[in-house]
Amino acid sequence: MEGDLSMLRGKHIINGSDTLVLVFQNAAKPLNDAIPDIYNGKIEQSEVAEMHERYTWMKFAERVPKADYFFIKDHFSSVYGWYLMDNGQFIHHEFNNALTNFIKENNYKRVVSFGSSKGGTAALLYGMMNPCITDVFSLIPQIHVATFINNLCPKEKSLFFGQNKKFEKQVDNILFEENLYETFVEKRIYFYSGILDIQFDPLLQYRDFLEARGIKTELFLNRSDERHTRLVNQYAPFIYGILEDLIDQSRKRTNLQAISVGSSVNLLREQ
């Protein structure tokens, strides 16, 4: 199986567990702010690499050492690439193979894919593609990545797509490609989002897409007036509890923090 492990750059924290949490990174503000200067060649790639050295969710790993963790960098497309594209080319099949090789070489029995925003998209994408991944926790993911990029940085979008309109459209619809699900095996899939998140409606449509294919998911719904980043930053204790339950294969913390209003939707209790 092809899949160069050198694609998997980041920090591997080994605690002696047979459970691994793959932590896909969100886009930190310094990287987003640097996009115009990266596009105009005013920032060197060595400087961009330094920006990727700061990992989100590290505090959780320090607090919960009952699992191993792999904090994976997303230094593609000169800035970041949602772990799926690099300068106008798809990399997700090769990246997925590298993940499989890494998981098998380290003899992990359970693997949780986790991340927020673009990290949530990656956690979801590889959760669907990779049968070695047993649990998925995707926070505020971009379902239509190209649509998000066109809102974030329309002038600099060639960093991601080149000048290829066809590729841009393929990126936007990648989660709806049937071939992503050819090797899918049943697993626990959690979404967390809010009614005011920028891609909340597409997330609901995507859940319908999965349900039509017999893929069950659960949604944890935040009904506050918070948007995107604050849906995560202001609710870290809730997220910590759900993630720790996934590691433990439990619902103890989940049931304390959320109330089920159906077979697949949960509301945050504190609201």
Could you characterize the architecture of this molecule?
The structure is a single chain. This protein is α/β, with parallel strands linked by helices and 271 residues long. The protein has one domain (5-268): Rossmann fold (3-Layer(aba) Sandwich). It has twelve helices and nine strands. It has helices at 29-39, 45-51, 58-63, 92-105, 118-129, 145-152, 158-161, 165-172, 200-212, 228-233, 236-248, 252-257, and strands at residues 10-13, 19-24, 68-72, 110-116, 135-139, 188-194, 218-222, 258-260, 265-268. A nine-stranded mixed beta sheet has the order 1-3-2-4-5-6-7-9-8. The longest helix is centred in the middle third of the chain and has 14 residues, at 92-105. The protein is globular and about 50 Å long. The protein starts with 9 loop residues before the first strand and ends with a strand. InterPro entries: AB_hydrolase_fold. This is Two component regulator three Y domain-containing protein.
